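lol ok so funny story. i was supposed to be doing the assay writeup but got distracted and ended up predicting the structure for this chain instead. priorities right. anyway since i did it might as well share w the group, maybe its usefull for someone
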Amino acid sequence: MTIKMLEKINIDAQNVALGIIGGTLIAFATTLHLVLFGRTTGMSSIFNSLVSCGHDASFRWKFGFFCGLVTGTYGIFMIFGHSLTIGNVTMNLFDQQETAQQGLNTFGFALGGLLVGVGTKLGNGCVTQYG
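and the output, tada:
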């Protein structure tokens, strides 16, 4: 089963370049967040605080951070669409809707989300807690 899953992964120069760019942006943003606010960027913790409606002193920045994450992604999609072409190189930024929905299982997503949520709550954190 593992080999069959690896066959679907498309590793080419474009995916590697986008991965490096995305990783660098995440590293820069989380380092900036740590330097400016003295806090690590834990997405699970931020989202949990918003969902549980904990209106403590940090609610405003967490709400702003989450809104910026959503609106920034939407803004990039509205500006560039599914792909960005620079010179002769076209980079896919977002999958087409048909590709993104291919082979999805609603039960699998619900179960996966529940297990990740319970696991991060039990583990008191998440793998996205950079810093």
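The chain has a mean pLDDT of 77. The longest helix spans residues 13-37.
back to the writeup now i swear
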